[in-house]
Amino acid sequence: MLDRPDFQQALRYVFEEKIPFCRTLGLKLEVEDGAPRVHIARQDFMLGNTKLKVLHGGVTAAVLDSIAGVAIMLRMVEADPKPDLETQLREFAQLSTIDLRVDYLEPASAAAFVATATVTRLGTRIANVQMALTDDAGRCVATGAAAFSLRAPRG
């Protein structure tokens, strides 16, 4: 499923267009060899420090949280591909962040950034992920760690 163009196109469409927050931030998803990368260009509304033109910490956290979710989705497809695209996408709707930690290493003052993520554990109920945000000069400006629930919350 990972190498199917229709799957990659659907995943990109959902991520970039159907999630309003990702669309507002202008996040662009790229998947190469099963590894996700999210590109983001700094915009004035994203600034936490307008004098230094540094990204707001919430934007950094949101980008890292978003890339973590995509990394888990891709790992889920790899571990247990569903028979059709609709079933696979429906399974992703069950994901939710239960813990997110961000370490801000440098002021995020570049014009563009790339987020990456690696799943360190994919269990039956919980997944763990390590993330990084680098600027357009290749400098790591933030790292993160997250835990996600793989099932829908009980109502």
Concise summary:
The protein is an alpha+beta fold. The chain is built from four helices and eight strands.
Number of helix segments?
A: 4
Beta-strand content: 35-45%
> Which runs of at least 5 residues are low in confidence (pLDDT < 50)?
none
Find the structural class using helix and strand composition: alpha+beta
What profile does the largest beta sheet have?
Answer: 6 strands, antiparallel
How far is the first residue's CA from the last residue's CA? 31 Å
Averaging pLDDT over every residue, what do you get?
92
Tell me the series of helices and strands, N- to C-terminal: HHEEEEHHEEEE
Q: What overall form do the CA principal axes indicate?
A: globular
The gyration radius over C-alpha positions equals: 15 Å
The helix content is 25-40%
Number of strands: 8
Q: How do the strands of the widest beta sheet line up side by side? A: 1-2-6-7-8-5
Describe the model:
A 6-stranded antiparallel beta sheet has the order 1-2-6-7-8-5. The chain is built from 4 helices and 8 strands. The longest helix has 23 residues. The radius of gyration is 15 Å and the shape is globular. By secondary structure, the protein is α+β, with helices and mostly antiparallel strands.
